[in-house]
Batch of 4 targets.
Target 1
Amino acid sequence: MRRVVITGMGVDSPIGVGLPANVASLRAMQGGIRPMPEWGKIPDLHTRIGGPVRGIDLFAHYPRRKRRTMGLVGLLAMHAADEAIAQAGLTEAILGNKRCGVAYGSTTGSSHALEDFCGPLFTQHTMRGLDSSSYLKFMTHTCAANLASTYGIRGRVIPAISACTSGSQSIGYAYEAIRGGAQDVMIAGGAEELHYATAVTFDLLMATSVRYNEQPELSPRPFDTRRDGLVIGEGAGTIVLEELEHALARGARPLAELVGFGTNCDGLHITAPSEEGMRGAMELALESAKLRAADVDYVNMHGTATEVGDIAESNATFALFGRPIPASTQKSYTGHTLGACGAIELIFSVAMMREGFLAANRNLDELDPRCGKLGYVRETTEARPRVVMTNNFAFGGVNTSIVLRAIDG
């Protein structure tokens, strides 16, 4: 099998615009959760905090001719892709080659565009004022389609739409396409835009944080006894994956090697997690990487700050590793970015490997004793992890696990 490396990364999240700003926030343990007063128009919505991307107006950043078929989710994907492509040094010739493709996901398309389109249509039963390009903004594969169109992609387009594993499955499928010889280069990742409809969805499931509406910096609290649910966030993470020899031949600098990917399905409850399924995905990733659990230095956990999720995931992880392996989740900084989280958290993992630190679990003051006995990172820690596993899980019993290995230089 061919070796697959990462040659470019781009990220926008509630803790920063661009990779350097995000890394600085992680090191400083600076979170990005804020009050959402605009959600006041839904008076019976309980949660009032979220994780928006601040510091850039993407609608002003891009000219209309370039963004006319994109809602915010597509623009977030493109902005992160611009950063990744620039770092990788991909030329138009490489992007337009049939050996270059896109694998990209989100939970849905643009919810704002869907609201603008369906609001008048469903409530007023009129087509007057509707934008003919709205569907292109809210179709489920809007990110993958718009990235392909923007960059002139001629290879495979793989839209992974699997809720909270959309980003991680996209990266995994891109990895498999290169490893198996179908493609040489893939632009991969996930994006999500913040909208009150998503907050309402999880509110109805009684899964959102409500206790800290007046103190947003104290939530979410993954694995903590005082956690009270997840916080919705937005953002995008994009990476450039490339076959190793292809990257070296054009003088690109590999940032890390993606060595293993595992994905499976619980085949059980559509929302409740399965420890067996979670552990199974991790085992598949290690098998794919030809590594043992003892070889892994750090686990980047999904860590949603829901009681059932935290307990199941942490115990599944401990069952596999059997030791207090260093572990943390960046959702304590960004909130749950849903379709983007797998990509954002993988990028954070590579950044930690390259810059020599482990990001802490924010707001972990008192560990829930029902959680697995892992080495939860409590403060920013200087370390040089060589092998990192990053895990994500989604409704429908979808589980993913990705293994990364450091590359010197």
Target 2
Amino acid sequence: MDEEFEKLWRVLMAQLEKDFDGDLDIQGILFLIGVQELGKGKQSFSKDQKIELLHVAICTILAPFGYYKLLHSDQDGWPHFETLKPLPHLKSGEQLKLMKQGILDYFGEIY
């Protein structure tokens, strides 16, 4: 990963850790994105709902790359996505970079 990309990632991580008062990993950031996209604020979630929130986040951050499209939100407010194309077979480091890029793009609209 190039130096500028990593610098942007470190800046975002520092801001998120400041805003959310603690260390965050990719999964924690995805959880935050999922909660944000659900739009119901802080609440308790079941284990299955937490998994769904991660799914919502992944679909949300990969939608701009053309992998998913938001279809609608159901009566409970949960977003539902359509798969537009399969995810490519990437090595671990490439998967991580794609996720980080999606997260940077997502928060680039907020910060």
Target 3
Amino acid sequence: MNPSGLATIGAALSAAFHLRADYRGPRWQAYVFKPLTTGLLLTSAALATPAQGPRYQIAVTVGLALSLLGDVFLMLPRDLFLAGLSSFLLAHLAYIVAFTSALPIGTAPALLLPLLAAAGILIRLLWPRVGRLRLPVLLYTAVILLMVWQAWARGWEFRTLGAGLAAVGATSFMVSDALLALNRFRRPWASAQALVMSTYVAAQALIALSVGTP
């Protein structure tokens, strides 16, 4: 197996250890395995033979690096939610750069409609609770919608496995962020962390795998 594949397997194992530590401890293991998981996915994308071109690979690698920074901000004991949100916003912008390679923004406009409907419902649920974060949350929502829309358009236009992996990964990222926001601003529930992290890791893994998949 090539180094990129080994890094992906390592990321899956690291994610499992992180989730276990989140629920059973010790806490220091969560601090180790959460960034390690994203770091290994970054390594996987960086070492892959680019099937989508160098721009796509570089942009995805930058997105994963920014996500790694966001992971660190969100897991620290201090409330650095805004810093984490900013890091992931920049990560989504990097993914948009990747997904617009060979496909301009605005392709398949009909695909945007269900995303706008879902975003409207989520914002309505969060709006009374986000307080001073309303503007950052709106900006973040707009950027992730653009990212997912472009990933869907790429999958629709190209009909390749690589484009499909990116589209499913982008969708999983949106689901993970929605669950995180609902858990933080609406009502926390016991299984939230498992759902947020499983969809998040799946999202990053699929986007990383798309780099080397034709």
Target 4
Amino acid sequence: MTIWQGALVFGAAFLAGMINSVAGGGTLISFPALIWAGLSPVTANATSAVAIWPGALGGMWGFRRELRGSETRFLSLVIPSLIGGAIGAALLRYTPPGVFAKLVPFLILAATILFMAQETIRRWIRNDEPAKSPVKAGWTITTMAFQLAVAIYGGYFGAGIGILMLAALGLMGLTDIHQMNGLKNFFALCINGVASVYFIFTGMAHWPDAIVMAAGAIVGGYGSAGLARRLGPRAVRRFVIVVGLAMAISLFLKNSP
């Protein structure tokens, strides 16, 4: 790793940690940076997952009070989160690198569009109508199936899973956005944790970049939260969207004949 590559990886992780502390979507910064640093898409994806995962601990700890007040029925989503994360990670390992490289622009574009729709989805799930009626068992099973699909996607790629999980929790009747964020961070910890363990034991992560990126993410998440808040979620979100769209377009052009 050259000095400029190390600076790029650390700086991207710093921004990713800062962005995740305010708006989410940090993977849209960390993943492209690793590709620009010279890693293959598959290795970059695995390395980003391993490096950014510790930041989810901080996010979950920040909502520990809301987590303590959560109903036990929401723990049912832990099972599909763990299973789906493992399946997604295994799918990534057995996807031919050339195929994944062609999928990456579509994945980034889809995640960016999902990120752009974040506020619309949040307004929808804040609607208090679902809370006025009990959640039926069949609806819970449907939500678990949805969470399994989200977890598979999360283990495979990861960007945008937070928004999808907020939607799943809204389907289960939750309306307290702070409690939803706490649960979302907990389930993301499960998904990314099991995927990261798989990537580590199968040797898919590139450790020099992972270590530098993990340090950057920790510093960014804890040391720059105040700066990110002063900038405001809107400015941070716009930056993520611009980077996501630019990366998708650049990779579409790169893959074109």
